[in-house]
Every structure is written in C-alpha cells, then in structure tokens.
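User: Fold this one for me? It's RNA polymerase factor sigma-70.
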Amino acid sequence: MSTRLEKMSKRLGKSGQRETVISLRQAEKKEWIKRIRFNNKKLADEVLIVEKKWAKLAYELDDRFRDKKRDLITYPIVRNLLEREADRWSRTYRNKRLTREDFLSKFYETAWLTIEKYSWIHSTYLYIQIRTAIKSCAKDMLRAIDCNSRYAFHSSLSLAEGFEDFYPDASGDLEDVVMERIFQENLSTQDKGVWRALCEGQSQRETAKELGKHRKTVSNSVARIKNKYNEFYKGMYGA
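Assistant: Here's what I get for RNA polymerase factor sigma-70.
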C-alpha cells in the first residue's frame, strides 16, 4: 500500500465507518449545491465540474496521484478562478504595491495545498474550498504589508503633494516610528485610504475619484492627516 493510502486509511478509520462518513459528507454537499443552484447556477455548475474532474483523478489513489493533480491546478475553471481573483485583488489594492503576479503566485501555491489536502470526507466542495482559501491568502498578504513598518516608512517617502513641509529634519529611525504610528494606529479608515492614494503620487482630484469621494472630503482628510502628523512630531520632539 502506498504512503498516501496508508495515511488515508488511518484518517478515515475502518471500512464501514469510512463509507458511512463519506456518504454523509456527500449527502451534505448535494443539499448544499441544491441551495446554491437556486441563487447562482453558474457557480453551482463550476463547483460540480471541478468536483467531477477531481473525482476522476482521485480513483488513482497511489503515488502517481500527486503528479496527476497538476492536471487539476491547470484545469481551465480553476486557472480562470485564480487569474480572475488575482486581477481583482491587484486592482482593488494597487496602492499596496502588490502586483497581479504577486497575488497569482500565492494563489497557485494556496490552491495546490488545498487540492493536496482534499478528500472524499470533506463536507465542502473543492472549488469552494479553493475560493475560500485564496480569499484568506489575499487578506494575509495585505495584513503582512500593514504590519511591516519598513514598508510603511518606505511608502511615506513617496508623498507627492502637500506633505513635504511637514517632514521633520530628524533621523530616519525617529521618522520611522512617527510614520508607523500615524499610518497604522491613528488614522480613520477614510484617512488611510487618502494617505495610501497620496503615497502613490496621486493628486487630490485623482484620489477623490478613486475613492468615490467629493474633492472637499479628500481635502479635509489631508488637513486631518497634517494635523495628526504635527501632533506626533511635537510629541516625539517635545516641541
């Protein structure tokens, strides 16, 4: 028996138990797909097509199964999902300096791991698991950038309009601390959006258009950010 079969056997238990659990899981999935089809037939069709492809490959439960999964990771529906989501996330968060290729590379890795772990016993269809996994992956990538103080400081250096007069003549380490605190802790969601857009070199007019805000709203956000910057500068220097 192959290593994969041994692991699967231990995980699923005795034959009778295994058949019962798998039958229950399949029944749960069928009920779920009925509900989804009522509201989103296209998604339901994609789910079942990918599941059918996986099932066809899964009959080869031996050491070659790992290589066969390459057929699934490049399957048109799966590939289109990964590319479509990479396009969407890179467009939405282009001010994070994450490219489409950054997202796509991580999405392929995540999808591969999801396929590796998938089995008959799962109660959720493979296609849905891949969708959920890459969404979590994208959020983790964005969270990692927000937690990276070096990146926050680097972004602040590219401010193009209205902020040059507020850079203190101080050491990079102190400026790093100020920037990090402003960017991560002391700005509202709206002000963060304005900050990030300006970090990309956009004008206030362009920022307003991108965020769907009135130009006056963006101007007010800029004023608030400047005031907070000055407050932190005074607090850090005691001036």
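One thing worth pointing out: DSSP finds twelve helices and no strands in the chain.
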